Amino acid sequence: MYLRIDLLKDMTEQMKLDIRKAEISALNQVVREAKKVAADELNAVYNIQKRDINRAIKVETAKAGNLRANLSVTGKKLPLIDFSARKNKQGVSIEIKRGGRKVLTHAFMPTMPTGHKGVFLRKGKTRLPIQEKFTQSIPQFFGSGNILNRIDEFVRRRLPELFNQERNKL
Q1: Most C-beta atoms within 10 A of its C-beta, which of 27, 33, 109, 163?
Q2: Strand-pair partners of 132
Q3: Mean pLDDT over each residue of the chain, to the nearest integer
Q4: What is the residue-wise DSSP string for 16-79?
């Protein structure tokens, strides 16, 4: 009688451990997939290179002691030169959102003595000083539009699927 109860307790403990492993595995897999979805969504709307997006997104995976997976986005403002900047008669044309070019009148694209290239505007009517122009940072791009909603929707749909797959592997 005592052996059966001990065996049942051991089996219950093993099941709890197995479910915990399935939870951790599913969370880690969904957070990695969410990073890819986030990069694809942002790249589909904005003219930002995936390489820059992937550098800005950090993944924190779940562990046995911490059943939490995290995506965090960090970064500085992006220089306008990175948005397919082209010199034309009116100034400089850039494409921040895909399919929509904007012209910055009076802007120019010099190469500095250090080799740095950028989109610049003069601060006043005089020749100098000049100021390089930047746009939003990648975290700010994530906040605009429906990108966060799409990522949330993906995670809510995909996490139960992955958990069931991982649980069935046991």
Answers
A1: 27
A2: 120
A3: 90
A4: HHHHHHHHHHHHHHHHHHHHHHHHHHHHHHB---HHHHHHHEEEE--BTTB---EEEE--PEEE
Q: Is the per-residue pLDDT at 73 higher than 90?
A: yes
Q: Which residues contact 18 (CB under 8 A, 6 or more apart)?
A: 167, 170
One-letter amino acid identity for 37? V
Q: Which of 31, 147, 163, 49 is nearest to 96 (CA)?
A: 49
Q: Is 138 exposed, middle or buried (0-12, 13-18, 19+ CB in 10 A)?
A: buried
CA diameter of the chain: 95
Interacting residues of 23 by C-beta distance below 8 A, sequence separation 6+: 62, 67, 163, 166
The angle that helices 147-169 and 2-45 make with each other, rounded to 10 degrees, is: 150
pLDDT per position as a tens digit, 31-46: 999 999 999 999 999 9
Q: What is the band of 94 on the pLDDT scale with cuts at 50, 70, 90?
A: very high
Tell me the backbone φ, ψ of residue 52, rounded to 5 degrees.
Answer: -70, -40
**pLDDT at residue number 77:** 96
- What residues have CB less than 8 Å from 148, skipping those under 6 apart? 142
